Amino acid sequence: AIFSGTLLNTHFHFSLNFSTASSTAQAFQSLANLTTCIASLQACAHHKDLTRGKQLHSYMLINGFLNSPLSTTSLINMYSKCNRIVDALSVFNASTHDQNVFAYNAIISGFITNELPKPAFEFYCRMRCAGVVPDKFTFP
User: Fold this and answer.
1) CA-CA distance, 76 to 131, in Å (whole number)?
2) Whole-angstrom Cα distance, residue 74 to residue 103?
3) Cα distance between residue 22 and residue 44, in whole Å
4) 3-state DSSP helix/strand/coil % of the chain, to nearest 5
5) Which entry of 44, 60, 87, 115 is 20 to 30 Å from 54 by CA?
6) Quick check: is 135 in a domain?
7) Per residue in 15-70, pLDDT tens?
8) Which of 108, 102, 70, 71 is nearest to 89 (CA)?
9) Which are the contacts of 92, defined by CB distance < 8 A and separation ≥ 6?
10) Are 91 and 99 in contact (CB under 8 A)?
11) 106 in a domain, yes or no?
């Protein structure tokens, strides 16, 4: 709660430092859950902190936190905002069970963020061909 609260109040640096300090202790490893990881990824995306984002990705993989559509979209968002669209695309492609409107929106937004309109449109077409219905966030 403290961790997520600091993010909501835009204390991103404190949140990341708290996460890093805690990650060295066994207490953090037993308390870290999907919510903590998602909040940490949001902070990494905000600060373009690729190093910590990749560490979180590894932690989530090891601890089985990648089976959630929320983890998929958060990772895509973090990699996109860190200008690592190839890594974002790898996350999208690896999550075949989570390729829903949220994942498509995240990857399309990632392409746009990285000034790649052609792949964004191609993924929009791919989304439609897959039978995924766009929502108001697909192309606002």
Assistant:
1) 21
2) 9
3) 16
4) 75, 0, 25
5) 115
6) no
7) 555 555 554 445 455 557 889 999 999 999 999 999 999 999 999 999 999 888 99
8) 108
9) 72, 76, 99, 103, 106, 107
10) no
11) yes
The amino acid that residue 94 corresponds to is A
Distance CA 127, CA 70 (A): 18
| Beta carbons of 103 and 69 less than 8 angstroms apart | yes
CATH of the domain at 55: 1.25.40
Residue for token pair 């902070």: 43
Q: Chain-centre distance of CA 111, in angstroms?
A: 14
Q: How far apart are CA 81 and CA 48, in angstroms?
A: 6
pLDDT digits (tens, 9 = 90+) for 71-103: 999 999 999 999 999 999 999 999 877 789 999
Which two tokens mark 60?
Answer: 């989530």
Domain count, the chain: 1
